[in-house]
Amino acid sequence: PYSVFTVLFVFFTSISTAQTTDCLHLREQCIHAANGCESVWNVVEDVCNISVLGNRCKAEDAIGCNRIIQILADEYPEFKICVCTTDDFCSITALLGCSIDKDNISTETKLQWSLSALSKQAYTANRTCLDINKECVEDEVCNKQLSLYLKACSVNRKCNMEECQAAIRFFYQNMPFEVAQMMTFCDCTQTDESCHRAKELLHGKPCAVTAVPPPSCLNVIHMCEENEFCRKKYTTFLSKCWRHVTEKCYDDEACLETLIKGDMPCSANADCKAAYVNSWGTMLRMECTCQNLSPAEHSLCKLFHHMLHSKSCFS
User: Fold this and answer.
1) Which of residues 178, 193, 209 is at a domain's end?
2) Which of 114, 186, 274, 297 sees the fewest Cβ atoms within 10 Å?
3) CA–CA dist 152, 162 (Å, integer)
4) Residue 15 lies inside a defined structural domain of this protein
5) Do 203 and 225 belong together in one domain?
6) In the chain, which ranges are continuous DSSP H helix?
7) Does one domain contain both 109 and 167?
8) With a threshold of 0.85, does the pTM exceed it?
9) Contact between 111 and 141 (Cβ < 8 Å)
10) Is residue 7 part of a domain?
11) 298 and 290 Cβ atoms separated by less than 8 Å
């Protein structure tokens, strides 16, 4: 007769095996989907950089790998069954179908932001993008994340906007908020071309933000609202930065059209800055236009452009 322990062991092993099988099936569906999932998956593969020997995984950066898997699950909730919190390797095992060789983890896994010199700096406004770019390149932890992001967004190959945006989301969400804030709000003097090139690198230009022809700001908002993941980011951004607007009109476009920019105070507090940083790597940061719209749509479009791209919150 089987002991209770044996029965429980077989039961939980079968659950684990079934979960892994489900995750592998989801992975295949994702790779062949036409909903942007493949683009996020490509970033998962770049970040996780898994090599498999037999059925053992060798992950160079288990911590970063778990974070990008969490981002995947946030955007595609069907992957929630593949995310677990028992240890640093559980989600990787479930999603990639191989067990982690914990004795063979590269020392790079231990390079966390807590060891980064850049992360120990207090946030200071008005930093130039060139200075911050140099500091990131010289910082071992930051440079590793930057290189992954630049690989996905490289102008030397055909741009995949969705993949580049997914890489930016991981880049900004995988660093301390102080560092993300410095990168987001860095700026340049008008004549400093080197600084402007650094700014474009840090902010995903041109691949993540420039579509040809540029969409109208109305289309950007409507596309975002149709995407559950983007809609959550947009809702948070509105509630944290433009509370007065949302309290007055919520999402009533006819009401919004009656507002003028002078009647739109931005909260400009820490929660607003966090919501703004958190919107990087979504379509909300795409360049948009209000040209060639009917007079009826033009004022609403200008309002959305002001909310998405005005620096009035942070100047």
Assistant:
1) 209
2) 114
3) 10
4) no
5) no
6) 4-31, 37-48, 62-75, 90-96, 129-138, 140-152, 161-173, 177-184, 193-202, 217-225, 228-241, 243-249, 253-257, 270-277, 295-309
7) yes
8) no
9) yes
10) no
11) yes
